[in-house]
Design goal:
Pfam families: OMP_b-brl_2. It comes from Sphingobacterium lactis. It is built from one helix and ten strands; from the N terminus they run αββββββββββ. By secondary structure, it is mostly beta strands.
Amino acid sequence: MKKSILLFSSALFLSFAAHAQTSYGIKAGMNLAKLSNVDNSMEDYQKNNLSFYLTGFADIPVASQFSIQPGISLQGKGEKYSIDETIANAKVDGSARLNILSIEIPVNAVYWIPAGPGKVYVGAGPYIGFNIDAKLKTDGDVTLEIIGDGDKDELDLEIGKDKDIHVVDAGMNFLAGYKLNNGFLINAGYGLGLTKILTDGDKRSSRVFSLGIGYQF
C-alpha cells in the first residue's frame, strides 16, 4: 500500500512538473548585512557588512502569473562596527566584523506582472538556513572580550549547541525584480531572520538586504 501511494505521488509530481514547464535559474550579487536588536550604545557605530550571495532555483508555474520558487543559496551574513572619533581626549579608530556563511533553502511564492520587454516580479516566502562558518575580526583600536586585544586579530567561532553561533537561522524572504524576455534578471531582496544568531542569550537576529543579477533558463 505504501509503495503504491509513493509511486502515485511520484507520478503525480512528475506529471505536474512536466505540465507546469518548470524552468531553472541562477542569481548572484552583494549582501548588505546587519544584526537586529543592537545595544543603544552601539547603534551609532553599526555599519553594513558587505558580503555576497549565490542562489540556484527552480521556477514552477501554478497559474498564469503565479509560480513557486524553491532553491538553495550560499549567503554571506553578519555585522560590522566602525569607529573613528575622539573619546575622553583620546583618538579611537578601528572596526570589528562578524562574518557568517550560511546555506539557505528558500521557498518563495512569486507573482509576475507583464511590463514592457519582460515582467516585473514580487514574492515572499520562508527560508531555513544552516550556518557553516563564522569568523570575528577586529582592526585598530576596537576590542572585544572574546578577542583579547585588537590590531587585526581574527577568531574562528564555533557553531552548534552551547557554542558561539546557532546552527539554524530561519526567517522570511522578500524579493522583487525584473525579468527580460531573454531570461536576464535584475534582483533585489530582503532577508528577515526570526531566530537568534548568538548562543549567549543575545536576541540579535539576521537582517540582509541584497542586490544582484541572474539568468533564468
